[in-house]
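Record type: monomer structure entry
Structure origin: computed from sequence
Chain ID: A
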Amino acid sequence: MSNHTGGHMLKEVLEILYELGVFKWLGTEKTAKLVSSVIHVGQRYDCNNNEILHEIGLKLGICAYCATPAEIVYNDICQLCFQENYSVDENGEISLTGAEEEWGYTQADLLRWLQAEALPYRQDGVEYYAKFIDLEKALRKRRWET
């Protein structure tokens, strides 16, 4: 479950800052740091990046999946996240691939979760959870354990 209200509220705050010209004044590097901080706060309150950065991420050049500065190429996401999560068939049709289609989350989602949830609380967080990032079988097993 996601905190949709919180995500929309944080998005509106970013939009207000954008409209006031705060991000132009801050510059690219400080804007990225501020947005990263907002995303981190959102993650602590179970908000998702896509809701926070929907449309405003495009204006700021910040990917809604990985929350890093990048050129946005499709649906508020950067080229790398697009390649990891979508495929294009011979007719140019775009579709989801891999874990997101089957399980509802992407590798980028798992990496964000690992950074926000596992690492701060577990000394062995990286070693324990890293196996769940690449192995769909492990993802399937972990999903049923929780």
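Annotation 1: The two ends are 13 Å apart (CA to CA).
Annotation 2: The longest strand covers residues 72-74.
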